[in-house]
Amino acid sequence: MKLLKKTPMIKQYLSIKEKYADAILFYRMGDFYEMFFEDAEVASKALEITLTSRNKKDENPIPMCGVPYKAAQGYIARLIGQGYKVAICDQVEDPALAKGLVKREVVRVITPGMVLDNELLDEKSDNYVLALVRNDDTAGLSYLDISTGVFRVTESSDMNSIVDEALRISPSEVLLPESSKSDRFFSPIINAMADRSTTFISDTAFKFSRGRERLVDQFKTLSLEGFGCEHLKAGVRAAGALLFYIRETQKQKIEHLSGIESYSISNYLIVDDISFRNLEINKNIRTGSRQGTLLGILDRTVTAMGGRLLKRWIRYPLMDVSEIESRQQAVEEARAKVPIRRNIREKLKSVYDLERLGSKIAMGQSNARDLVALKQSLKSLPDIWSLLSNLSSELFISDQNIDSLCELAGLIESAIREDTPPTINEGGIIKTGYNAELDELISISRDGKKWLARLEAKEKDATGIITLKVRYNKVFGYFIEIPKARSKDVPLHYVRKQTLVNAERYITDELKQYETKVLSAQDQRAVLEYELFNQVKDEVIKNNVAIQQMAHFLACLDCLLDLAEVADQNDYNRPEFNTNGHILIENGRHPVVEKMITGERFVPNTIQIDDIDNQILIITGPNMAGKSTILRQVALMVLMAQMGSFIPAARASMSVTDRIFTRVGALDNLSQGQSTFMVEMQETANILNSATQRSLVIMDEIGRGTSTFDGLSIAWAVAEHLHDLKGHGVKTLFATHYHELTELARMYPRIKNYNVTVEE
To answer: What is the DSSP string of 598-610?
Structure first.
């Protein structure tokens, strides 16, 4: 077999591909992005496009496929959705001016966690890339969404907490140091993240000194004290690696990352990934959709950024009662003031995704339509501010001055056309009246026919040749055409350009100058419009911090008004918080089930659980009586209450819960070689090892994965253990078909029996 014949183009391709071996290289050739060799074989299958070959007659033809440059986004979206990375290799010089092979460079690498394009993103979901590293016995974790600028960092010495947190973040991509491949410390996280896109980068990218240097450079500060993470050695290493990765893939400094939020995992109610799934909080177990979930009930937000924030609130319920009550107060006021609430929500519908708009613009990935969307959003601010003056809750009050943002909207209004095209380098972007030079170029392009008519009339009058015509064609450009019969009357300054059978064609200095002007006017116009567009864009970038702050405020406003609307529509009430460890829910309803049943009324129920007399409730009853529904509704209402929402109950008083655990259902994990019984025992062991006095445990039919006798023994032992856990026990709802467990109430003071009955 002959060796591969390497043309200059193939040599260039291979040298670039070598640097991006883990990505599919989109190599720009004219109007197409071409892929070669293995990339072509992979992409053709993934995209279902034709695989052809280059140099078909050679002994070793090169596999090749391609996609149109202008339609590339859709193809990239499909590849990213399948977990691939795409390196965009563009022509970085004008082919017309190139001497030899056109210079090409990778201008951006798109990975599952490095996505800015709306076509590739779910508007109401964050898209995180997560970095993880260990510093001795402490694990540092940092994550960001490049499309919104959300950037957070934490650390913990408890690896189980780190794994739980990583699953809670649910990143699209995970960054790990190369050394983690052989470090047993990382095995749990690698196993837990096996279905996510994982990228291993050099250990040097995770060095503390370099990471800290990158962060202070990014934020333009002298230290990280102001962000509360100067002391987080492991966390800073992870955050610094993220910045390294961003700069390597995006080929630029990311201006819209203006800060980082440090947090403690213990500041939020933890619902582990298994429990989150069991409770069907944002995904229906059976369908995978949001229908039939808590999120499906609660999310009536009217902005994309509000929808994303609400998902964060659901995933990160609060532990601080004062913060919870601050949200509750705002929800209560908005619920009471119906016209104000609905008017603000109507105005918010005109607000586009400011978070992602600001990020796209800051990273140079925007077009003029994005500026128009930004303008329309900012123009809504005065009306929203006016309506907010009728509300007094602290979360409805912003100290942000909107004047500069309104001025920015005015600038965009004066500069950018409403009907702007999607491209930014072909003209048609800037309004007439904004720039005098541009107006002249537009006039030349638009009014060429009028000028030619005036010139023709002038030349007819000057020469007396009434048959004289001024014409244009693509071959000869502009010319004056005179019948041969009148050629003797042609002025001396006319220069012959072409002879025809019956006519002569001429050019004049005036016409030549005009030709040059007209032919270049369109090009000049496009260049000038591009410059003016960038000037306006630069003004937007200068205001990016204010835009991001406004985005966060409006997202929070959207969430609070949403919770008020949902409470009003569904007859939810404000829960109270106590410090005595009690959870009392009077006439509670399952927020999802009550909406799913048709033709009948949901029967409310009352639950009291505490640390004194009713710590463990053994719930028995026939199948389909509603035992599981009661268990889940208590857990959901605790979560709703701590995120600041009202709940479906006549009255409720709750103590703050630190963790919600569930052991529900019978889900095999056969791919991991785990039976129903094994899964059940692992989840139960996790509960027994991790629960505290402030936790809430939901046990639904434990022991069904084995024989009756063994199952009863296990259920009995677990109930006993939960009663005595760490010397004080844990609040537990224990549904079972083992009626023998009711005997426990005779033996233990904090266990009570409840029976669910069905009335015809």
So the answer is: -SS----EEEEE-
